Amino acid sequence: MPEGPELHLASLYVNKMCKGVVFTGPVRKSEVSKNPDVPFTSEAYFITAVSRGKEVKLTLTPIKTDEPKVRVKAGQTEKPMDVVFRFGMSGYFRLTKEDELPKHAHLRFYTKETPCKVLSFVDARRFGSWEPNGTWQPARGPCIMFEYKSFRENVVSHLSDSAFDRPICEVLLNQKYFNGIGNYLRAEILFRLKIPPFVSARTVLKGLESEDPSECAKPVKNEIADTKMPVCSKKEKVKAEVGDLLRLCHTVPLEVVNLGGKGYDPEKSDYSVFEAWLQCYYVDGMKSMRDHNGRTIWFEGDPGALAPKNSKSPKAKKRAKKEDDHDYTEKKKLVRNASKDSTKRAVKQEASAKTRKKQKDVHGKRARSKKRHTDKSQEVNTPSHLEKGTTARRRRSSVEPAGGSQRRSSRLTRQNNQ
Question: Where do Basic and acidic residues bias regions lie (predicted)?
Fold first, then answer.
C-alpha cells in the first residue's frame, strides 16, 4: 500500500477537492524533507491530477488574464508545471484548513481565499518523492488499468526476457511490465487463479495473446465516470478470468477503484469494506512466505518449486486498523493523550522503583560497612590486654628453657667432678 488503485483514487480526490479552487503564491516544502524544492510561484493557478500505475502527476496551471495592461510580476511562473509524485509506503493528499495542517505535510499548495486552505502531500514515513518538471518514469511499463491493450502487448512481446525466469509472484512486482501491481494485488490475483506463487512466470504467461480474446474487454478511460468494469454476462466473465492472468491484472485493481472512498479514504481512514473485499492477503487461514526479495507473499496450498529454501514464514499478525496515519479527530487525540499519560505513569513508577532499590542498596552497604567497622574495632581493642599476658608468657617461656639448660649443665659438671 498504496498501489495503482490507491494512486488513481488519490488523483480523483485532488480533482474533486480542487475543482474551481484558485491557488496562489509559492509551493512550500517542509524543512525535514530531502526532496527537491518546487520552483513554482504564481498569483493565481489551478491544480489538476492524473495517475498512471504507481505515479500521480499534478499539473499547476497559471490563470491567464485577458487584461493586456496586467503584467506578470517578477519571479512569477507563466507556464504550467508538472510535478510527478511517487507515494512510497504512506503517501497521500489531503486538503485542510491552514490551522489544521497535518503533522507530516511535506509539500504544500495554498489557496487564494480567506480563511486559507492547504493541499498537502502527507507522508509519515517519508519514503515518497516528487519531481518538479517531471515526466512518467520511462522504465515503467503501461498502466495496468488505463492502458490495458499496451500493457498486454508489452508483457507478451517480452516473454523471452530473463526477468520471466523468476517466480510469477516476484515478476508481478516488476514495474517495467506490471506498473501498478503491488503486494496485496499480486496475492489476490494469484489466489483467484489458484496459481502457486513460486512457479516460473514464463510458464504461467506462455500461450496468452497480446489481444484479450474476451468479447467484453474494452478500454477503460481514466475518468471517474468510466472506472466501472465493462458489463458482460456471468458466463463471459468467468471465461475472461479463468487462466488469463493479464486480464485479472486489469480487472482486480478496477474492483478496488470501484470501492471508491471505502477503499481509500484519507479523511476517515475506514478500510472495513476493503478488508472485507480481500480474499487472500492477510486473511486468516492463508499461508505466507518471504520471496527472494524479502517481500511477504500470501497464498493457499503449495508454494511452488521455485520457493526459497529454508524460508521461514513471518509470524502471523492480526490486521490492525492504522488510524494513526489519517485520523486527526478529537477522539483520536484523547486516546493518544491517554496513552501518553499511561506511558508517563509507567516511566515514573519504574524510576521510583529504581530509586527505592538504589536507596535500599545504599542503606544495606552502610549497614554492612558499619558492622565491619564494629567487628574490626572489637578485633583490635579486645585482645589488647590479652596480648600483653600472652606476650609475657611467651617471654617467660623463651627464658625458662634457657635457665633450665644452665641448671642441667651445672649438675652434669658437678657429677663429672665427683
Answer: 321-353
Same domain as 10, residue 113: yes
Which has the closest alpha carbon to 122: 99, 93, 95?
93
Q: Encode pLDDT of 343-359 as tens digits.
A: 667 667 777 776 777 77
| Residues 127 and 208 both lie in one domain | no
Q: Report the alpha-carbon distance of residue 132 to residue 229 in Å, rounded.
A: 34
Q: At 14, which CATH number? A: 3.20.190.10
Task: Identify the DSSP state of 96.
Answer: E
Residue type, 254: L
Q: What is the DSSP letter of 323?
A: G
Give me the active site residues, please: 2-3, 54
According to the model, what pLDDT value does residue 380 have?
Answer: 47
pTM of the model: 0.69
Q: Residue 327 above 70 pLDDT?
A: no
Q: Between helices 245-258 and 234-241, what is the axis angle to 10°?
A: 120
Both 155 and 180 in one domain: the answer is yes
Q: Which of 189, 317, 277 is nearest to 197 (CA)?
A: 189
CATH of the domain at 203: 1.10.8.50
CA distances from 131 to 108, 134, 135 (A): 14, 5, 8
What cell was used for 358? Answer: 538504589
pLDDT at 13: 95
